[in-house]
Amino acid sequence: MKRVVVWIVGLAAFVGALWTGWTFRASNSLNIDLDLIWIRIPNVELWWVLLIAMAFGSGLTLVVVGFAWLRGRLLLRRYRSMNRRLEKEVHELRSLPLVGSEPGGASLDAIETAEPTTTPVPERG
Hints:
- With 125 residues, the protein is mainly alpha-helical.
- It has helices at 2-27, 46-95, 108-113; strands at 31-35, 40-45.
- It has a two-stranded antiparallel ribbon with strand order 1-2.
- Strand 1 and strand 2 form a beta hairpin.
- The longest helix has 50 residues, at 46-95.
């Protein structure tokens, strides 16, 4: 049932696109002279000029949006790799033993009460 609905919707979209294209061509069938900066093209149908202008604008928009999308994807990849690296570092820090937690390790009390070692300063004379 779902496939039939999808097929009918696809067929309706295709027929709608054909009807829209035919109506667009019929509405804009006027011949014009196209004066560009360096060239003049006589007797061009208006719908061709409009179609080419829309295609050029769409292509330019696709390039600009494509670069913005690519930049976003590259930043996302960089941030994800940085996030993985930082999570790995946090995991390594969490797995380090605490001072005084090992039986043979130094205790926190012993470190706090130990006298500081100083080196004697030679006298000048």
